[in-house]
Design brief:
The chain has 16 helices and 13 strands. The chain is of the alpha/beta class. Bound molecules: adenosine-5'-diphosphate. Adenosine-5'-diphosphate (ADP) binds next to helix 11 and helix 13. Adenosine-5'-diphosphate binds next to helix 11 and helix 13.
Length: 398
Amino acid sequence: MDECALVLNAGSSSLKFCVYRKSAAGAWSLEAGGQIEGIGTAPHFSARDGAGNLLDKRPLDKDALDARTAFDSLAAWLRFRYGGARVVGVGHRVVHGGTKFVSPTVVTAQVLDELRQLIPLAPLHQPYNLAAIDAVSEQLPGVPQVACFDTSFHRGQSAVAELIPLPREICRSGIQRYGFHGLSYEYIASVLPQVAPEISGGRVIVAHLGSGASMCALKDGKSVDHSLGFTALDGLCMGTRPGALDPGVVLYLIQNLGLSAKEVETILYKKSGLLGISEISNDMRDLLGSRVPLAQLAVDYFVYRATKEIGALAAVLGGIDGLVFTAGIGENSAAIRSRICEASAWLGVDLDRDANARHNSRISRPESRVSAWRIPTNEELMIARHTGQLLDLVEVHA
Ligand code: ADP
């Protein structure tokens, strides 16, 4: 391999990566992908080739303590495997671009400085994203890097949709609805013309149901509203986050239960949602497989909250033409898709149970007024495409 481009998605405890290679014909294709999980606790590395075959899987020594040192381990593996290749660019997922970064951006010292100022708006994601950029600068000096933002796709929404109705003076510090999972929604919007042409120019709700979960209202492929707001805590019930919450609860936790802001943060980001309700697991597979009443209550609430959000976004769109499911739960759980579609029958969703059970792309009956779809997302490919375009590389393929 002569040239490759890297895509990195750095989180608090994992570093996901993809390697894209340039073929002789000049097209880019997925060469390998994988992750380092358990950073800071019991780090282990795994990688698969573009066809999904396992290339490597092993524990790492405790050196992979943070996003920075984890990248050192990844760089060593890349050198071992693709020693002769030239890395022409690195694309990063960066969760927050604020109001300024409305599209992917080549990272400079000044850009990095401005992105650091957004850390308070995404304290559990942004620092890790930026640490990976720092690590690449050290290990691969001179290689251009591109930051791709989860918020960008939502910019362009109306002033009303972005508003958080607190005193204007307070909002001036950057308090507004930003929206997240934008790379996933952008990818789905980009493939709708091929996969579901009859709805691509219409009113579509996309349900990104993973450990983090959200919904986006698309009109003609553009985001008009979204369930996540100022932070990644709003909207749907998630694995460990509660979703929309009466703000009075936060006041009560602080004023009456005497919890510190840090303790409340931990509760909101790590102990609530499916895990908080069930007291068993944040993993939907565990809950669906359990007969414990609280596990079933967690699943019921997840479906209830998702259905409620569909109703709200349908109102924003003035009706819907299509409903798309994506991400871990949306792509893999026929049971959850079925329950949400059946609860949305009043909107005109008529589920084809067989197609849904077979995980087809189209999961509604041909005569369904609102069509329903299962479309796997690919945030890494979206980052690779942006990186390629911005660094003037050629088109990137899955
Ligand atoms: P993230 O990228 O936000 O970490 P994913 O999109 O990978 O999350 O989704 C993770 C979620 O998908 C987990 O809650 C997991 O339980 C769920 N999931 C994966 N496969 C299935 C399945 N077959 N049935 C139900 N849930 C599943």
